[in-house]
Specification:
Layout (H helix, E strand, L loop, with lengths): L9 E2 L4 E4 L5 E3 L2 E2 L8 E5 L6 E5 L9 E3 L10 E3 L8 E10 L5 E6 L3 E5 L6 H33 L8 E5 L2 E6 L10 H8 L8 H4 L2 E8 L15 E8 L3
Parallel strand pairs: 2-11
Antiparallel strand pairs: 1-4, 3-8, 5-6, 5-9, 7-8, 9-10, 9-11, 12-13, 14-15
């Protein structure tokens, strides 16, 4: 079988290593000076599913893997750059020697180093920024709700600009007058008749004006043909810009 020099030993001191994504991590492995012929390799995993991460006999460097001490025959510590989630697993430092068949056979290996992902901790500055951001969001939400309530209250009060009016017409009972938007049969029909005599130069803006009539009794005046006991009346038209 596989043989190595007498007194050979291999040390892999790390049991576990926690690494954040993107960081460089180190895997440590040393051997005694009495190493026999055969390479030292780093393997990820063990058995048929293992993968070679570093091989002492391969001159071309492995991707993201470098030796800490180049060309050393006793220190096989390596750096692995830009840690990714797929790099998590157990790594073994393994000494191979030539067997009788000429193939490399496992002679000795370390107990394995378990590499896991470390969650990046939030620094106090990031926590403070998150708190301020939440406060600003709540403040903006409160202002938005207050604005909506103000607009609803303001729009609800527009109707008060055109309250029903009650006027006295001589000896007649009080008659309520509604806005010009009233239904047929209301005093607003009088306004429609009056508006037909207005000048034709009215703009589209004036068409949106609100009209209402207020009947007021006029003082007695000589009027030929007037029936006794009656008081003449007139009405006036007012325009209020609609909002």
């Amino acid at each position: 079988g596989a043989q190595a020099g007498p007194g050979f030993s291999l040390q892999q001191p790390q049991d576990k290593v926690s690494v954040a994504v993107g960081e460089t991590f180190t895997l440590r492995c040393t051997t005694s000076a009495d190493a026999g012929p055969g390479p030292v390799r780093w393997l990820k995993g063990w058995g048929s599913g293992s993968k070679t991460i570093y091989d002492q006999k391969i001159k071309e460097p492995f991707s993201r893997v470098t030796r800490v001490v180049e060309k050393s025959n006793t220190d096989f510590t390596i750096h692995i750059r830009n840690f990714q989630p797929d790099d998590a697993g157990t790594y073994y430092c393994v000494k191979f020697v030539k067997g009788k068949t000429g193939e490399n056979e496992v002679f000795q290996h370390g107990s394995g180093t378990e590499v896991s992902i470390r969650e990046t901790a939030l620094v106090p500055g990031m926590v403070a920024a998150a708190v301020v951001l939440c406060f600003l969001i709540l403040l903006l939400l409160g202002l938005f709700v207050a604005l909506c309530m103000y607009r609803r209250k303001h729009q609800g009060g527009v109707g008060s600009l055109c309250p029903a009016r009650t006027v006295a017409m001589g000896s007649f009972s009080s008659v309520p007058l509604r806005c010009c938007a009233g239904t047929p049969g209301t005093p607003s029909e009088v306004l429609d008749a009056e508006s037909s005599h207005l000048p034709s130069q009215q703009s589209s803006k004036e068409e949106n004006d609100i009209h209402y009539a207020d009947l007021q009794p006029l003082p007695p005046a000589p009027w030929r043909g007037r029936s006794p006991g009656t008081a003449p009346t007139e009405y006036a038209s007012l325009r209020v810009a609609a909002k």
